[in-house]
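Researcher: Excuse me, tokens okay?
***
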Amino acid sequence: MDIQRLNPESLPKPAASYCQITRRGSIITTAGFVSIDKDGKLVGKNDIRVQTRQTIENLKLALESVGAGIKDVMQTIVYISDMVDYKGMNEIYNEYFSGHPPTRATVKAELVLPTMLIEIQAIAVLDE
């Protein structure tokens, strides 16, 4: 079975050598998404709620490019640069995942740029 490796046109081009989403059969994995818009600009400087929303919107676009959606997400890993932002991140995260929460790990991490407050990666599974 072939693996689809995609960098959807609806998302900013990756700054390094990686693909943003892969699909093999019904299994989908994503790279870590951050709060970057289509033009490669950071959205929501110093605002965890705005960055979380943009990050999840980027994740949604990636999932849609392979025929999936937020409801198909089985697991997420949330990387957050400062745990003081946990409550604000969780507030927005719950707007997207409240009816069908996936398993989740939340990890305090130093992200690629100090202006990035959050990164989220996911695993999704489609019904066959």
Notes: The beta strands are 4-6, 21-24, 27-30, 73-80, 103-108, 118-125. The first strand starts at residue 4 and ends at 6.
